[in-house]
User: Fold these one by one.
Assistant:
Number 1:
Amino acid sequence: MGKHHQVFRNHRQEHALTKSRVVVAAIFVLMMVGVLMGRLFYLQVVEHELYQTKANDNRLMLITEPPPRGLIFDRNGVVLADNRPIHSLTVIPERALSLPELKKALSESVDITDEEWADYESRLQDYRRPYQSITLKSQLSDEEWSKVSVDLYRLDGVQVEAQLTRYYPYGEAFAHAVGYVGRITTKDLERVDRSAYQGALFIGKTGVEEYYESTLFGHPGISKVEVNARGRIMSEIERQNPVPGKDLHLYMDARLQQYAYDLLGSYKGSVVAIDPNNGGVLAMVSKPGFDPNSFVRGISVSKYAELREDKRLPLFNRALRGGYPPASTIKPFMGLAGLEYGFSSWTETYYARGYYQINPNGRRYRDWKRSGHGWIDLERSIIESVDTYYYQLAHKMGITPIHTFLSKLGFGQTSILDLNGASAGLLPSNEWKKARYKEPWYPGDSVNVGIGQGFMVATPIQIATATAAMAARGHMYYPRMVSQIANEPATFEGNDGVEHEIKLKDQRNWERMVKAMEKVITDSRGTGRRLQGTDYKIAGKTGTGQVFSLQEDEEYDADNLDKRLHDHALFIGFAPADNPKIAVFAIFENGGSSAKPADLTKALFDAYLYDKYPKEYDYFKESSR
Amino acid sequence: MNVQFYQRILAFTNARLWRLTHVDVLLLLALLILMSGGLFILYSASGQNVAMVERQVLRLGIGMVVCLALAQLPPKYMRRASPFLFVFLVGLLVCVLLFGVGAKGAQRWLALPGGLRFQPSEIMKIVMPMMVAWYFANRQLPPSLKEIITVLVIIAVPSLMVAKQPDLGTALLVGVSGIFALFLAGIGWLYILGAAAVAPIAGYSLWHVMHDYQKQRVLTFLNPESDPLGSGWNIIQSKTAIGSGGLHGKGFLEGTQAQLNFLPESHTDFIIAVLAEEFGMVGCALLMCAYLLVIARGLFIAAYAEDNYARLLAGSITLTFFVYMFVNIGMVSGILPVVGVPLPLVSYGGTSIITIMATFGILMSIQTHKRAR
C-alpha cells in the first residue's frame, strides 16, 4: 500500500464520492425494477384479458365434425341421394417427410397427379394452423386405399381419413329435380353459417339439395380440445355430438321419373307430372340431363366446359326455366276465360274457315286445317283444336281479361314452392308491352296469344300446374317436391298461400271443360284420338308450338326443314278424368306432331295408375328402403 | 421486531465462525433464497423433470464451492493479479476469434485437451471490472478525461471482440461491467450526459457490425408480429404467457403456455415467463424481492468496502448482476431485444452460474477481509 501515500489524495473525499455513486446506483436499480414491474403490470393486469384470450386460442381448438347429410327418398322409399364413405389421403406437413421424399415414398402406392401436388403445395403456402392436416388426394379408390393403408406405418404424418360423400344412384334422369351437392365455395359460405360448415366438404348447389340445404345438413358436432404446441390433442374439454340432417321424402315416383326420361328418347324436352290432389310433383324431367355424381367428385374444367357448351343444354333445367309457347294446350284455359267474361258460351256457334282476319283484306291468321272446320261450338273447338275460334275469341276479349284469368292459373308467376330458380315465363299485358317495346298492345297481339303463341311464354311446370288445377276442377295447388321431412309432413308458407280455389261464375264450367278434354280423346275427330282404348278416362289437349313463323301462304313442310326448326310437340292430360290422380305436361322439342307427347302421357298414366312398367324398371322396387 | 431480536441477528451474522470462514452470511442467505425459488420454478418449467432439477442443484453446488473458495482469497491478491488476468484473457479472446469452436455461426469456445470446452468471454465478465478497478486503484478520483478515454479503450477492446464472436449478450455484460466501474469511480455527470447524447450514433454504427441473425433479432424485437411463426414466435408466446398469468397466476404446474410447450426455451432464457404465468405478478414481485436482497447486500458491501479497488469492483459486480436480471426480464417481457441472456441463478444450465457465483465469492472476500476497525 505504500505507493498510495506518495500522492496527495483525500481518501475520505474519494470514499464519499464512490459511496454516493453506490447510492445513485441503488436508486437507479430501484427505478429500473420499477420499470420492470410497470411492464409486468401492463402485461398482466392492463392487457391481461387480451393475453388470456391468446393463450386460450393457443391451447383450445374447436374440431367440427360434419353431420351426416339427410337422405332423399322418393314416395316409395327409393333412395335418390345417398351417403357413401370415401377415403382421402391427408398429410400433416410438420410430421411428414420433406416434399421430394414424400413424393417418392407415396409414388409406390398411390397415383398422385402433378395437379394434385401443385394444389397441395399451394395450400402449404396458405396461412394455416401448425400441425393441421392438408388433403393431398380425395376419394381414393379401394385399391389405392388398401395399398396406402399398408404403408401408413412407415409414412409419418400421412393418414387416411374417412368421410361421407353424396352419391346419386340413378344419375342423369334425376339431376335437375333432385339437384346435386358440390364442393363449398367462398360464395356458398356467404349464405350459410360459416362456423357450421367448418370441416364440411359439400353443400347443395341445385334442385332439392339446394332448397333444403339447411334441413339436409343438420348441425355439426363440436368438440373443444386442448392441444399442445405440436398440435397433439391432450384432452377433450367439451363435446357436442353432431345432429344428422333430416331425410326428405319426395312426392316423386322414381320409376315414373326414369320412365318419362327414357320415353323422351333421343329428343330434348321436358315432362312434368303432378298429383292434382295435393300439388305434389310426381315427375319432373328435363332432358338431356347429366351425371350429378361428377359434380360431387369435382368435375374437371374441361368436362364442365364441355357440358356448358353442349348445344343440347344438358345443364339447363327445362322443366323450371324452359320458356315455350304453350300453343294449343292453352285453349281449354282460354275457353274458360271466354266463358268467365261472357265472350263465349257453350251454345253459341261459330263458322270456322281456314283463316281469321281482323279486318277484311287484313292479315290472314291461318288455321292448322286449311279447309276450316265449318260450324263449330266451344266444345268442338277444343276437340278439334280450332285455331280460328280462339283467334276471334282472343280478339274479342283483348289481353286484359286473358291476363287476369291466366294469372289465377299461375301463368306469368313462379309458383313452385320448394325449388329455386324457376322462371316466371311471360304472360303479356298492356303494361308489359308498353314497358318492353314502348308500343301499345295491338289486336293482332291478342290473336296470337289466343292460340298460346306470340308473346306468350310458359314453362313446363307452369303448364302442368294449370293442368292439375283443371283436373282438380279449379282447385289450384302450388306445386311442391317434398311431402315429408323426417317423419313430419312438410308444411309450406308462400307469400300468396300455397293453394287457392279458382271460383268461376258458373262452377259447372270446369266439369264441362273437362268433358270437352275427354272428347279430345274419345271423339272420332279428336286430336288425341290415338289414345283411345283405355280402361280409364283420359282428358287431354294437344299442342304444336311454332319454333319459327311461317309466311302467310307458306306451307309447313317437315321433311324439308332442319330438325332444329321442327315444331315443338306438346300434350297436357290427366287421368282418370272423373277422379284425377295424375296430371301431365309433356313437350318434345322439335318433336313435330303431338303424337309423341300424347303417347308418352298415356304410358305414364298406365304406369302410374296400373303399375304397368316395362320389366326393366323393377330394380326401383328392389332398391326401396 | 424488538431490539433483542435484532441484536441476536446481528450477533449471528457477526459470529466468529463466519469471520473465520470468510462467509458473508447475509449474502449467502439471499443467494440461497433466490436459488431455491429458482429450482422451484425450474421443476415446473422443465415439465417436472427431476433429473434436470438435480443437475441444476449440482451446478449451483459447484458454484457455491467456487464462491466460498474465492471468498478465502484476500482482495489485494486479486488487485495485483488484475492486469495480468486481463491481458491473458484478451489473448484468449484473440485465440477464440482465430481457432474458436461453436455452433449456429458463433464461435465462443476454446477446445481444451480432454474434450473440455472453455469460454473466455465468461471469465471476462469478472476480469473486466477488476481491470477498471485496478486502473483507478492508484489514481485520484474523480478521473480525468484522459483517464476516462483510456478506460473506455480498455472496455471497448474485449467487448468488441466478444461481440465479434458473435455473442451480443455477453459483450453487453462485459461492456456494462466496465462502464459501471467507471461510473462508480465518479466520472462527471457531464460526461454521462454527453455519452447519452452519443449513444444513438453508437447504436447506428453497432448495427453495421452486427451479424444478420443479430439484426433479425433486433427487427423482431421492434415488431414481433411481422414474423409470427418464425423469429417472432418466442416473444409473442412469452408475452402471452406473462399476460395470461394475470395478477395471481394460473397455479403451480397449471400454466398452459409452459406445460403445453407453446413457450419456447421455457427452462432456460424464458423461465421468468413460466413464473409469471403460474404465479402471476405476485410471484414475479416476490422473485424480484429475492434479487433485490442480493443486490442490496452487494451494494452495501460496495459502499463500505475498504478501498477504491474493492468499492469499484464490488459495486460493478453487483450492478452487472442486476443488469443480467434486468436484460433477461426485459427481453422476455418484450421491452428489450432477445439477446440470449439467462435469468441469473434461475435459468437452467450454462457456465454463467459458475461465473456469477465466482463474483459473489469476490464480494464475500471483500466484505470479510476488511481490517477490523
Note: The two ends of chain A are 110 Å apart (CA to CA).
Number 2:
Amino acid sequence: MPTFVYMTRCDGCGHCVDICPSDIMHIDPTYRRAYNIEPDMCWECYSCVKACPQNAIDARGYADFAPLGHSVRVRREEEKGTISWRIKFRDGTEKNFVSPITTKPWGEGIPELKDVTGPNRDMRDSQLLYSEPKYIRMDEGGLHTLESAGLKMKQGVYY
Amino acid sequence: MAHKTIVEDDIDVLVVGGGLGGTGAAWEARFWGQDKKIVIAEKANIDRSGAVAQGLYAINCYMGTRWGENNPEDHVRYARIDLMGMVREDLLFDMARHVDSTVHQFEDWGLPIMRNSKTGSYLREGRWQIMIHGESYKPIVAEAAKKSADKVFNRICVTHLLMDDAKDNRVAGAVGFNVRTGDYHVFKSKTVVVAAGGASNIFKPRSVGEGAGRVWYAPWSSGSAYGLLINAGAKMTQMENRIVLARFKDGYGPVGAYFLHLKTYTQNGLGEEYESKWFPELQKMVGKEYLDPEVSHRTHRPIPTCLRNHALISEVNAGRGPIHMVTMHAFQDPHLEEVGWENFLGMTVGQAVLWAATDVDPKNENPELTTSEPYVMGSHATGAGGWASGPEDVSPPEYFWGYNRMMTVEGLFGAGDAVGGTPHAFSSGSFTEGRLAAKAACKYIDDGKAKGIRVSDRQIEERKDEIFAPMDRYKVYRNEIVAGTVSPSYIHPKQGLDRLQKLMDEYCGGVTVNYMTNEKLLNICLKKLKIMEEDLDKLAAKDLHELLRAWELRHRHRTAECVTHHTLFRKETRWPGYYYRGDAMKLDDENWHVLTVSRRDPRTGEYTMEKAPCYHLVDQNEEKAPAAAE
C-alpha cells in the first residue's frame, strides 16, 4: 500500500513532506497539496499517515499483489501516549487495536548529558559507558571481561 | 541552479546517519565530550529515519544478565553458530556486555517494554528477544540524540567523506547536499562516525511494480554505510555474507514473534513437516559440526538461519510448495491473536494491509511464507561491513589498532550496519555500538590524534562539481530529445537501479537463479559492474529528488561491486540458503575458516583481497570451545 492523499482533506501543510523517510511525499505545484511521487519506493511505514493533522493520507495495498477494498487506519495521540489501529478487510471484517507508545511525558525521562557529572580519568581509561556498571547488572560485579568469564580468544576452528 | 556552499567547521564528532547507530553515537558522545561539538547529518528527518522508522515490536538483542538469564559469551556463541562460525567475537562480546545498559536506558526514557508478570523481568519472546510497544522507538531515541547534539542537519544526503590533505589515510569530515534546498554542505570534523544504512534493492526484488517498495529492509537503506567507507579506502569484511529472509509472502512481515512467542510452525503444501528431511544431505555439505539435528534437539542449540532457508528453498524446488506458517491453532487464543496483529502494526504495517486486502485471517487460514531477495547489511542474521578495531581488553593483535570501532582509516568510526562481523546486534546492539564508537572517538581527539587536519579548497570544490554533475548533465542533454526518459546521452537513476538489480540477481546469486552463482558468473558480474560505472558518470537528475536517487544508486553500486569481489574470493558455500557457489558446493573449513577482508584503492579502483584469522572465545583452561549455546 503505497500512500495516497485525498484531495478534499489535504490543506498542503507539508507535515508529510517533512517526515517522509523516503523523500517521496511532495507538494504538487498545481494543486498545492501533497502526493506520493514514487510509490515503488514507499515502505508503507505510515510515518506520513501518522503525521497528517487532517487525516488526509491513506494507503492502498501495492497494486502488484493487493486487491482493492481494504483499509488500515491509524490515529497516533502523543498526549494520550497511545496509537489506535482499525483494520478493514476486503470482506468487511473489522479488527481494532490500541497500544501504548510511551510511558513518560514526552522527552522528560531523558537527561541532558552536558549537565551530568562528567567522567573522570579512571572512567575514561576503563571500558565503561555512561551510567555503567549500574545499568548492566544488579549484583556487585562490574563489566564482563574475558577474565571474569574465564575465556580467551583463540585462532582455529571451534563451534 | 546555483548551489550555495554551507560550511560547518570545527566539528569534533560528526555522525553520518541518524538511525539507531547514529542516535546512540550522538547521545553518548556528549558524556565523554561535554565541551565537544557534536553534529548529526541525516538523509531524512531524524524523528522517523533509518530501519526503525515505523517502529519495532521487539528488541532482539538483550542479555538479561540482571535477571540471571544470559551472559555476553552466550550470545557470542549463538551468533557464531548462526553465522556458521564467521563472526568477530571480540566485537560481539563487547556489544553484548554493554547492550543491557542501553535497553535499561530506553525504558527510563519512556519506551514501553512488556514485563513478565510472574518474574518481574522483561517479557521474553525468545532467548534473546524481549517484547516492546515500540511504535515510538525511533522518536524516543531521536529525542535523546537531539538533546546531546549541537546541531542536527536533516535532509542532508552525505555523498563522500572528506580526507585529510596533510596526513594520508586520515578522515577530515564529510560532504553532501540538502535534498530540499540544493545547498552544498561541507562538514569539517576531527572524527566521523559512519552510522548510515545497509543495502536493500541491490538484488532484483520478487515484486514487479509498486510492491518493490515493500522490501524487507527499508528502501531508503541505500548501502551508504558501505559506499562511504569503501570510497574512502577503508577495509571491508564479510561482504559476501548477504542475507535472505524467510518471511510472510509479499508483505515480508516478521516471523520472529510467530515462531518464538506464538509457537507457530511451518509445513509444506501437503501439510507435512519438511525441514528435517533436508538435513542429512545438508549435513554432508556443511559438516556435522555445523548441523547436528540430534544435538540441536537435545540442547536447543539453534539451527543456523541459512540452513533453515535451505530446507524451505529445497522443498519449494521439489514441487511441494507453498510453505505455510501454521497460525490457525495459536490464533484461536485471543491474546495471541492480538500479539500476532500488533506485531505487524508495530513494525510492518504493510503485512497487515496485505492480509486485509486478501482476506487472510490467520485464525482461519495459514498464511504463505517465502524467501526474499538477498540484502546486504550487518546488524541482523548477517555480518557485512567495515573492518573495525575491537576493544583493547578483548581483541587479539590482528583485531586491534588503537580505538574501539575505528576503521582502517584514522578518525573514521562505525556503528550498526557499518561494522562488519557483528551480526545479531539489531536495534539495541546498533545503538550500543554507536555509544562505543562515540566514546572512542572522543578519546582519539583527547589523545591529540586529530591535530593538524587540513582540507584543501580543491578537494571541496571537486566534490561539489561531482555531486551536482547529474543535474548539469540533464540540463545540457534534455533538449536533445523531444520528451520522455529515453536518451542516448544519459540514464536516469531508476534505469540504473533496474540494471544493477538485474545483473546482481542473475550473476551474483539472486532470487530468480535460486541464489546460485559461480566463478564464471561472478567474473561476468564484475565486468558488467565496471561498465555500469562508466554509465554512472552519465547519470542525469531532473530535480533534487532524482539527485538523491542518483547518489543512493552510486552507493548501492559500490556496495554491489564489493559484494561480488568477496563472493568471488570465498571459494566455498559457507551459508547454503543465503547463496551457493555452484563450483564449490561444500563448506571448506580447511581453507576458509577465515574472515574475508578487502580494500579498494581509491586512486586506482583496484581491490585487494586477504584472509584474516577467525578467533573464537574458548575456555581459558581448555583448548575447546565451551558447550554450545542452549
Note: Chain A touches chain B through 91 residues (CB under 8 Å).
